[in-house]
Sequence to fold (80 residues):
Amino acid sequence: MLKELKKAFAEPELSHASFLVFLNKVDKLEKGVSKDILLEKYDLKDCMKDPRIFVELCSVKEKFKITDGLSWLSKSMVAL
Fold:
């Protein structure tokens, strides 16, 4: 996934965009599966260093962390 995000940021129209990545269904994960493990699995670990990208574990079903991600996105948006 990191490769795709880097490709998107290379586009002039998206170079200043903010990207919110939700890793949904954390309510279905086995106990002990950490955010670090999921970041590694989906090749998102390096994304955490880029302030334009926010990765949030969430559960839409359980209404867990959805508003945190959307709050970050609304604060990070740049007026065009």
Summary: The mean pLDDT is 84. Residues 32 and 38 are 11 Å apart (CA to CA). The first helix runs from residue 2 to 10. The chain has one domain: 2-76.
